[in-house]
Amino acid sequence: MNKKLIALAVAAASISSVATAAEVYSDETSSLAVGGRFEARAVMADNNEGDSKVSDATRVRVNIAGKTDITDTIYGIGFWEGEYTDGNEVNNRHLNAGIGGDFGQIRYGKTDGSLGMITDMTDIMSYHGNEAGGKIAAADRTSNNLAYVGSFDLGGDNLTVKANYVFAGENEDLNGTYDVDGYSAGAIYTLDMGLAFGAGYGEQDTEDRDTAKNAFAGLSYTYGDFYVAGLYQDSRNTDADKVRGYEFAAAYTYGNTVFVATYNYLEDADASSNEALADSIAVDATHYFNKNFRAYASYKFNNLSTSDAGAATRADTSDEFVLGARYDF
């Protein structure tokens, strides 16, 4: 049970609730599954006047996954996921279709880029974390995206490879309606003994005819009930001309509860002083009542001051406490 819970914690940032999706239709060649989550989140932090404020960040996600056999080795796939928060329109997080087989999967539409699997090595908290894992849109989830993913068993070890290309066009995820394109690629090699190495790179054009670049490297190790990981980022023309950062994460499973801690630091590497864009320590605890329902508490110790580059307002320096409950279906 414990190793399964660590796997759930490590996969916290992946596609919502696919593992618990319920099959609602199937015949000899095709199947359709529906999944999602209801997640209540109360976020407590100080505002610019220093007064404590509670914000409702509750959300609902629903996804539909379809698969049909084309031949004995080739199949067709389709996936949609939407998210709704109170007072907002439904956000289409995923909207894609493609083909798959022993070679992997190829999808087109709104789908993941290639660097999310690298940042997921440390982005394992129920709410906080990943402040040093910001990705350009072409390396994250975006539309007009042709993406490939393949996972290969190498005699006990495993190699996962991703690559994607985002075509120029009216693409709000990249840069409004400006005609830009971009790409990213990454790989993770996992040894049978629990050690994993990951690296990836992405580029995209910017509105002022420059090029935004992301480079990530990750390392993780799983041993029994323990999981530790590290992430390093080196980027250009993103949050600043030159950005460097890192995140360290650790998780421990005790019974049905997973405890996680992370440290994030992101800096403007070209600044002469006050270069911190993010600087925080976060801890959380998530209790899994069963595979469908969990509750968690998460606290972020914010180390920024108003003189730092990443704190435009007093509220940006506030600590944050979150209580959440999540039902997956």
Automatic annotation (TrEMBL):
CC per GO annotation: cell outer membrane
Domain of life according to the entry: Bacteria
Matching InterPro entries: Gram-neg_bact_OMP (IPR050298), Gram_neg_porin_domain (IPR033900), Porin_dom_sf (IPR023614)
Gene3D superfamilies referenced in this protein's UniProt entry, alphabetically: Porin (2.40.160.10)
An example molecular function term from Gene Ontology annotations: porin activity
Record key words, sorted: Membrane, Signal
Cell compartment(s), UniProt: Cell outer membrane
Chief location of this protein within or outside the cell: membrane
Protein name: Porin
